[in-house]
Write a structure and sequence with these properties.
alpha/beta, ten-stranded mixed β-sheet, 24 helices, single chain, six-stranded mixed β-sheet
């Protein structure tokens, strides 16, 4: 195997082209011969490519070149075996396409798999932005036909273009009645990741998820390129007879099913077939085959299967007005799906951990740069991160943080006058604060933080990690007569009464809560828990259903294990606190 145009070319294809293009001097004639023999439109884009290839094969200029690593662009090429298995799985569903579209065809393995398995193909469209892959796809198609001379040869167009520049609606109009199959493996990368690489292979800037200003700034406006491509294809082909089958990240499938409530794309039989990404691509990314039928009554549910065994795992999606991860299990616990009577909050965001996160050693503070610092105590608070939330009750923290503000946007000039040592330390490291990339800090006072407010200073907190896949809640107690802070990977509810905090802890760590959360959370999500998820916990309904005997047993256990003296005497007032305001007002009359 050698390379021409940085693309792999087999000896079979190289030797064939030597004889096939012999004595041809015109790119037009060469292209016509390639079309007549193999159905490939515009094999050579221009005369320069034609001459370069001729020189390479006749002068033995085909050479070995190191493979370019394009993984940073989300480019994980589907191996031939997986592409073939995927095509065969579609064949078993009696899918027999006449038109094949691969929006990001890479080296062409899906096109070869389609040619190998589907005998009804009339036309193939492949799109690829990376020119060496365009050539490799064409070489691979030639190699396939040379090895299988009796295979029917459809018309094939391999377009060197960005997928975002292709008018798919025009293609749909040209082939209104033919059976369609959209197949492939779009990039597993987000728009912000490609933007940081200065890639031009991006859709035109748009807030296509309609996020508000702050959400867009803090990352919710970020989206997967594969999701954008898939929705673009739905826009163009949703009313076209056929199917879509794309390898995408699991988060993309979840988002697409979630958006179906609003978008109502004409897709049905939505299925997620889980693959082993480590085995197939050697990456630690949760991914699956998304398949669906086009031109159907819109569905907003997705059945999940194991790709290798075809065993059905579960069904997720919309059930009335609720989005759930396991419809069957959700039905068992849906009575506690509602609105949490207490507001869940996210912890502090400072994006400057080297400077702001400290440890106390021998009466001094040290930062992540191993610098020893003397600071005033007033602005120092105990600090917990997701990895710290392992125990049921936490009384001491291993880290501390500096609170420069008590509410978002507060003027920080007071620090210089009241806490000169702290100000000197912060000012010395001002370049670290100025290097923070998030736009939320623009125009804000020096050393600003976010996720801070009156709620941060409630002494008793019930917290959970948003990152870790554990359904266990933690009680965080004050430290040195100060409330403990959490970072922005954690979510919490704050209380002024420890009894209320303990009651809430018991409710949240109950079996019913865990079952419910497992039915609405996605285990492979980047954040298993979010504020939206946690706000669905109707603690009032849960508290009414649970027996006071069970609550008393749990209180006794916590008192004995953590040396506390909590009683059940505040239970009725706790219930009353959770009741809606209107209901409480009626009691006054």
């Amino acid at each position: 195997m050698n390379k021409i145009f940085e693309a792999n070319i087999s000896f079979q294809v190289c030797n064939f082209l030597k004889g096939f293009l012999k004595n041809i001097s015109s790119v037009e004639i060469a292209n016509q011969k390639m079309f007549d023999s193999f159905g490939i439109h515009t094999f050579f884009d221009n005369n320069s490519d034609f001459k370069t290839l001729i020189e390479s094969i006749y002068l033995s200029n085909a050479s070995s070149v190191a493979e370019t690593d394009r993984a940073e662009y989300g480019d994980f090429q589907t191996n031939k075996d997986l592409a073939d298995k995927l095509a065969k799985s579609l064949l078993l569903k009696n899918i027999s396409p006449e038109i094949i579209i691969e929006p990001t065809c890479g080296k062409g393995n899906f096109i070869i798999a389609a040619l190998s398995n589907f005998k009804t193909i009339k036309k193939i469209f492949g799109v690829e932005i990376y020119k060496p892959y365009v050539w490799e796809t064409k070489f691979n198609i030639l190699n396939f036909f040379l090895s299988n001379p009796n295979i029917q040869k459809p018309e094939i167009s391999i377009l060197h273009s960005s997928v975002f520049d292709i008018d798919f609606k025009n293609i749909s109009k040209q082939y209104k009645t033919e059976e369609l199959l959209i197949i492939g493996n779009p990039p597993w990368v987000t728009n912000s990741e490609l933007g940081s690489l200065n890639s031009t292979n991006l859709p035109k800037k748009s807030n296509f998820k309609n996020q508000n200003g702050l959400d867009a700034m803090t990352g919710k406006g970020n989206f997967d390129i594969a999701e954008y491509i898939t929705l673009t294809l739905f826009d163009a082909f949703q009313s076209h007879k056929g199917h879509l089958a794309l390898l995408v990240k699991n988060s993309v499938i979840k988002n697409i099913v979630f958006e179906q409530k609003r978008k109502q794309y004409r897709i049905d039989e939505i299925e997620k077939h889980c693959i082993d990404s480590k085995k197939e691509f050697n990456v630690s990314v949760e991914a699956s085959l998304l398949s669906c039928k086009l031109n159907s009554i819109p569905s907003d549910k997705c059945s999940e299967f194991d790709f290798y065994s075809s065993e059905k795992k579960l069904t997720f999606g919309w059930l009335n007005s609720k989005f759930v991860s396991n419809i069957y299990n959700y039905n068992e616990t849906k009575n506690i799906d509602g609105l949490c009577p207490f507001e869940w909050r996210q912890g502090i965001k400072h994006d400057c951990s080297n400077i702001m996160e400290l440890e106390r050693k021998n009466g001094y503070f040290t930062n992540k740069l191993s610098e020893t610092i003397t600071l005033e105590e007033d602005l120092i608070y105990g600090f917990l991160k997701s990895s710290d939330l392992k125990n049921t009750v936490i009384k001491q923290t291993r880290k501390h943080t500096i609170l420069t503000q008590t509410k978002v946007g507060q003027d920080t000039s007071y620090i210089q006058h009241l806490y000169p040592a702290t100000h000197t330390y912060l000012k010395k490291n001002i370049s670290s604060f100025q290097a923070r990339k998030s736009s939320i800090y623009k125009g804000k006072p020096p050393f600003s933080i976010f996720g801070i407010g009156d709620y941060s200073f409630k002494p008793y907190k019930i917290a959970i990690s948003g990152l870790y896949k554990t359904y266990h809640f933690t009680l965080v107690l004050p430290q040195n007569n100060k409330p403990v802070m959490l970072d922005d990977t954690c979510y919490f509810i704050g209380f002024y009464k420890i009894e209320y905090a303990i009651y809430t802890l018991i409710l949240l760590n109950s079996d019913k809560t865990e079952e419910f959360l497992k039915s609405i959370t996605f285990y492979d999500a980047k954040r298993v828990f979010t504020k939206d998820i946690l706000m669905r916990l109707n603690l009032l309904e849960l508290a009414i259903k649970i027996s006071q005997k069970e609550i008393k047993e749990q209180i006794d256990f916590i008192n004995a294990k953590y040396d506390l003296e909590i009683k059940l005497s505040n239970w009725d007032s706790f219930i009353d606190e959770m009741k809606p305001k209107k209901e409480k007002q009626l009691k006054l009359f």
